[in-house]
Design a protein that fits this description.
It is built from 19 helices and two strands. By secondary structure, the chain is mainly alpha-helical. The N and C termini lie far apart (about 60 Å).
């Protein structure tokens, strides 16, 4: 176990820059996002109203595919709006100070173009599996967009994606929920793990169509309720909002001095944890959401790309920002608490015990839907590697891992998740760069016909 821990730490050191060496992933993520944003002429900002119109009209579609464009986004959001929006934001502030949120914003702004590009390619190069269902994602656009010579890169993505799913989308979620329910209601870890496993099993047995239906019902309600509660805090403390925003921006470039229970953070720590937790939350650059968008009922890669980029906007620039502002305004960020406990303290400070229940409820529902969305991502990666016969064993392993994650200490899993996220992002980012001419050509052709 010690050797495994050291190996994971070494990988993280290379990818995220925890060691003295230069980080590999942060400049690559930022560079690809900036490159695509410029090549697409800031489409992710200028076409934001169009994206919301397409989302609304995409609730129903008669085109080929498995789920509606709206359901595809809700499935992608079900996977991204999870513990990263509550525990992940708190961890970023605890380790990097309020300035980490600024860098989370930056990676999200440029990440919108990345998410757009992923979905465009996913629909462009999607295939039909042995059962006749539409499937796609980075492994498919690498293999069919770049050619057989890049098959090894597609295999690498699928392998890392399959493994990452058990971390970011399963055991981390189950463990966070079990701990929160135990702390707040003294619920035994085994019981919360068992309930979560059974509920997830009841949904994923129906595949992407069942997941899409459930996500379309739950995600808008859960995200709307959480945002409403956070907005209540901000309205009640409106006078402190400008100072909180100023603190986020100033500390992003100066670091954060120690104070209260907060140990202080350098500018580099703000960048490192802002970017890492931002990616953990919105998954831009990982390529995971492209797997859901490939199943959408659409005949336009560009339209689905526009809908897809809303995932990053909603997840990070709205939901994560709300959590961060509550934590900062409440003063809880200087308490020395970390993770979900920090978010719980922040809401409890501003809304009494009602606020604490809001966080626990949000964690439970967010984590549940994340486990649904990522089950499909991991399943498709596994099917790409081993064929359709792996799906049933994979689903059984998925349900078992939920229970294990709930009852065991999984400090290593958090680090493992960061490592696998980084490794699955690398082949995807390479493919986005090499296929950027295709993305630009499709985009310009679409808007030339529809100004």
């Amino acid at each position: 176990m010690q050797q495994l821990t050291q190996a994971v730490d070494a990988i993280n050191g290379i990818i995220w820059g925890d060691t003295l060496g230069l980080p590999l992933l942060i400049p690559l993520l930022a560079g690809v996002g900036i490159f695509l944003t410029l090549r697409l002429r800031f489409l992710s900002i200028t076409r934001l109203p169009t994206a919301f119109i397409l989302l609304w009209s995409g609730r129903r579609s008669s085109h080929s595919g498995e789920i509606s464009p709206f359901q595809a986004l809700m499935t992608a959001l079900s996977a991204t709006i999870g513990t990263g929006n509550i525990a992940g934001v708190a961890t970023a502030i605890y380790a990097g100070g309020p300035g980490a949120i600024f860098w989370m914003w930056m990676i999200a702004l440029f990440g919108m173009a990345t998410k757009y590009a992923e979905a465009v390619l996913a629909v462009k190069y999607r295939q039909r599996d042995a059962a006749g269902r539409y499937v796609g994602g980075p492994m498919y656009y690498i293999r069919h967009g770049l050619g057989a010579g890049y098959g090894w890169l597609a295999t690498a993505f699928a392998l890392f994606g399959m493994l990452a799913a058990f971390g970011i989308g399963n055991m981390v979620q189950a463990n966070t929920v079990a701990a929160a329910l135990h702390d707040r209601f003294d619920m035994p870890l085994w019981l919360s793990g068992l309930i979560a496993a059974v509920l997830v099993a009841m949904v994923i047995i129906g595949g992407i169509r069942r997941i899409g239906e459930v996500a379309a019902r739950i995600v808008p309600v859960m995200a709307g309720a959480y945002i409403l509660c956070a907005l209540t805090v901000l309205v009640l403390n409106f006078g402190q909002v400008p100072a909180a925003l100023q603190l986020i921006i100033s500390d992003a470039f100066t670091g954060t001095a120690a104070g209260g229970g907060f140990l202080g953070a350098s500018v580099w720590m703000a960048i490192r944890f802002g970017v890492a937790r931002g990616i953990f939350s919105n998954e831009s650059g990982l390529g995971s959401a492209a797997i859901a968008h490939a199943a959408a009922r659409t005949n336009s890669p560009v339209q689905q790309g526009l809908v897809a980029m809303l995932g990053t906007f909603i997840d990070t620039l709205i939901v994560c920002t709300m959590t961060a502002l509550v934590i900062i305004i409440s003063g809880a960020w200087q308490s020395g608490e970390n993770g979900a406990a920090l978010s719980t303290l922040a809401f409890a400070t501003t809304l009494s015990q009602t606020g604490a229940y809001i966080v626990v409820f949000g964690l439970v529902v967010f984590a549940f839907t994340t486990m649904l969305g990522w089950s499909y991502y991991g399943e498709r990666c596994a099917a790409y590697l081993f064929g359709q016969r792996i799906i049933t064993p994979y689903r059984l392993a998925w349900v078992l891992a939920i229970y294990i994650g709930a009852v065991q200490k999984i400090d290593l899993v958090w680090n493992f998740s960061d490592a696998m996220n980084g490794l699955m992002a690398l082949p995807n980012l390479v493919a986005l760069l090499l296929l950027s001419p295709v993305i630009v050509r499709l985009t310009r052709a679409y808007f030339h016909e529809r100004p």
